[in-house]
Amino acid sequence: MIMDIKETLKNTLNELYGSEGAKAILARLSFESIGKAPRKVLWDESSMALITYGDSIGTTGQVPLVSLTSFLQRELEGTLPWVHLLPFFPFTSDDGFSVSDYRKVRPDLGSWREIESMKDSFSLFFDAVINHTSISHSWFVGWKKGDPAYEHFYLSYPKEIDVSAVTRPRTHPLLTPFETSKGEKWVWTTFSEDQADLDFSSSEVFVALAELLRFYAEKGATGIRLDAIGHGWKDPERSSLNLPEAHRWIVAMRSYLELVGADVILLSETNVPQAENLLYFGDREPEAHLIYNFALSGLVAHGFLTESAKALGDYLQTLSVPREDTGYFHVLATHDGIGVRPLIGILSKEEIEQLAEATIARGGAVNFKINADDSRSPYELNITYYSILKAPQESEEWTARKFRSAHMILLSLAGIPGIYYHSLFASENQLDEKERTGMNRSINRKAIALPLTKREERWMGEMKELFYARSQNAAFHPNGKQEIFCSDSLFQIKRTALDGSGSVSCLINMTHVEIELEARAVGLDLITGDRVDRLQPFEGRWISRREK
After folding, report:
1. Could you tell me if 430 and 488 lie in one domain?
2. At CA 47, angle to CA 41 and CA 52, rounded to 5?
3. Domain limit, last residue, from 163, 195, 227
4. How far, in Å, CA of 422 to CA of 407, rounded?
5. Where are the beta strands (DSSP E) in 22-135?
């Protein structure tokens, strides 16, 4: 097995960097074992992740990571065993995603000591924000000064080069001018003028990033999220999104990490249509262990907006995984809101526009991208998940049922559910934070101050009840059998334990009209034990059955 992985690494590096580049990389990399004890299993029915910034939940005056760890240990230990910490490194913009030092913890958050403390109670996912660095990063500073160590770290092109083929997630120009020791250079900046893209075609960059991911594994990361990895490999004459070389790069990096015993779960972050997203599981060789199911977010919202389960059910019927060590990382809410691109090919242009209009009507905002013809189209919807489900003039009871039912869908699906911290408390739009920062994305990024309000406590209690019920039932194992049965108004997922010993059906009324269940769907509620033969408007239930 080790020999096979070594051969994969060597062959893939040869494909990407040529024989001389591959030799240079292999000569520079350390292959000394990290020494981590390998996991016996990748995941089980208890595997659920809280997604949070290091200072998202805390007490004023206390070290944020200390406060967060204390809260998590007190409220969620034994309930949500995974914590995905969004970037906790020094940064200059983009709420942490413009990293100026990959190996330090932000001093205002705490230190590696606090990360170690959290790791004692939770499995941690770190963000590898490696498509780009802050322009204040020492690598970029060295590149501008002409330091030969960083000569090949960044991409610069003549100002006049045609980049119309490049797929753009933002509206600013792709190339940004910088004064360097060699005069003005126009640098590739996919996401902002403060974020200079690394040159993945450079063997020096591969070594630097391999050493970085190894460092994260040594620091105790259970998983590593490869942020914006689809943009990693660039070519001005092609889309520079999901290029074949980007996939081969992940194969090479995973091979290296396996060879040194990093024992990390790789999660690819690709905000793209589903057909392209699936490619990150790997074709010839394994790539990511987990890929995001970003489409779920918009489809669940669309289902409640139109009071129809059809589009959601049809989409979920298509989901599959190629190997037992692969799965979906399902999300409803994220720090970026609701992505639109994953809905392309699933919903019509008119249905996507309807979602964007609903977002505005509910107090949210829409970020746009530039198309090849210079037109604009929605890229992401900036709104909290509770707010997207809250129709104008609708009763609070109905919105609450929608929100709970949406998370029952999330928790029922085969794969790993990720719960954004604001969903833990059913937060509504933070318009004051959006106003303060001037950024649309700030609408769902405000910190939760402790102590919690009564409403926040109540919602956290309801969510924990769902988490606990999932974690205690083998039918929810991420690799367990999944069957989708949907009528237009009733959404149903049936999950069956790996050994066939029992099943749970998730039933969701997607409409404002009470539904009487057919005899075959009637059963006992997993949480309350009550007999369920009908569903109230927008109500969700888990019906448990033991197999004979």
Report:
1. no
2. 130
3. 195
4. 13
5. 49-52, 57-58, 82-85, 123-128, 132-134
Q: Give the residue carrying structure tokens 């090919």.
A: 345
Task: Give the DSSP letter string of 440-463.
Answer: GGGGG-PPEESSPPHHHHHHHHHH
- Is 387's pLDDT higher than 70? yes
**CATH number for 487:** 2.60.40.1180
Q: Distance between the two ends of the chain, CA-based, in angstroms?
A: 40
Residue type, 236: P
Examine the pLDDT at 526 and tell me if it is beyond 70.
Answer: yes
Euclidean distance between CA atoms 279 and 96, whole angstroms:
28
Domain that holds residue 74: 2-131+204-478
Q: 0.90 cut: is pTM over it?
A: yes
Tokens describing residue 267: 């999660």
Amino acid at 231: H
Q: How far is CA 387 from the centre of its chain?
A: 20
β strands within 167-220, DSSP E: 175-180, 183-188, 195-197
User: 477-505, pLDDT tens digit by residue?
Assistant: 999 999 999 989 999 999 999 999 999 99
Domain count, the chain: 3
E strand or H helix at 475, and its extent? Answer: none
How many Å apart are CA 318 and CA 484, to the nearest integer?
10
Rg (CA), the chain: 23
Give catalytic residues, as residue numbers.
227
Contact 370, 340 (CB under 8 A): no
Q: Contact, 492 vs 506, CB < 8 A?
A: yes
Distance of CA 401 to the CA centre of its chain: 25
State how far Cα 403 lies from the chain centre: 20
